[in-house]
Every structure is written in structure tokens, then in C-alpha cells.
Amino acid sequence: AQSVSQHNHHVILSEAASLELGCNYSYGGTVNLFWYVQYPGQHLQLLLKYFSGDPLVKGIKGFEAEFIKSKFSFNLRKPSVQWSDTAEYFCAVKSGNTPLVFGKGTRLSVIA
Amino acid sequence: NAGVTQTPKFRVLKTGQSMTLLCAQDMNHEYMYWYRQDPGMGLRLIHYSVGEGTTAKGEVPDGYNVSRLKKQNFLLGLESAAPSQTSVYFCASSYDAGSYEQYFGPGTRLTVT
Which of B4, B53, B72, B82 is the most buried (most CB within 10 A)? Predict the structure, then answer.
């Protein structure tokens, strides 16, 4: 069965620090990749997605992610985090017509 | 355009009680999903539907039933609630199962005592 691994459960950063959250998946075929964000008390919102083409994907709020097929990875990055980026981040993978599979999430806490 | 809505927002049940959670979407999406979110577990798929009148089991279907009588609605039922079903439940919908993203509802926080 397909699986998604997010390596960090909780990341604590100071404002203006750079962010990289890891995501690896197990499926070897064609995949669609997503990062969702859940701000405290809110529902999940799409940050960015990769379907094909340029493996470097830019999303909202200055986030980007890079698809590295050989490493089965889709890491999320942001050069300079803000306090408002405090949230939980979920990587998700979709292949064919199977439902989306989510990672367990990484909680990001940004401190002033 | 309200997107995906869920009712109720909060509910407390006693063990053995039953309830139904309602999800509605106004985007004419074919696919609808029910997830539960638990600390450290991410989102786990309970059931999903690929169109009106169809349902399918997800990763954690036991103890839940669903119905999709109308395209815009997807109901999640708990016949006999258990404390292990204390969770936050999210509904989502998507245009199809291909490359389209899923849109999520605001969630229902359920506590079973």
C-alpha cells in the first residue's frame, strides 16, 4: 500500500529562519503531490501541488516544494518564516484513481 | 458559493448513542470523502464516494456507515458510538479522482464519553 512519511513531527523556528519540511512517499508510479496547511482551529487548505512539468513548484505565501523523483521526495521550503506560518503541514500523494494518502503531519511553531 | 459545509460543528455523545454528520458541497463535485483527524495520526480516510449512489471503504471504515443519496450531500453515521471515535471529522470533495485537489470542510469535533 502507498504510504507517505513526514520525518519531523514538530519543528520550532525563530522568525526569519529558513524552513524545510521533508516528505517521502512509497509509490513508484506516476503521482500527484500536494502540501496542505492547517492553521490553528481551521480546516485544511491547499498550499501547492505538483502534477507534471517543472519539479520546482511555487505555492501561496512564499512556499515552494521540489519534486525529486529519484528520491521519492517532495520537500516543502520557505526562505524566511513568519509567526503567521505557525500551523500543521500535511504532505499528500495521489496515484491514479486511488484516494489521496496523507502523511501524519508536521507541526510548525514559529517564535518571535 | 459556500464550498464544503459540515453540520454540526461540535457534538458530545454518550457511548452507545448514534448520530449522523452531514456534509454538503455546492461545487458539483463527483467525489466526496470523510476523514478523521487524531493527534499524531494525520488524516485517515473513513469512507468515500465516487458519485451519487456509490460508497467505498477507506482505511478506517469500522464503526461507520455512509450514504450519498444526493450528489451534493455525503452523510457519515455512527450507529453505536465508542470513546475511540472521539476525533475531529473532516469532509472533503473533489471534481474527480485525477489531478484535481480536494476541498475541505471546517470539521466536526466529536467527543464520545
Answer: B4
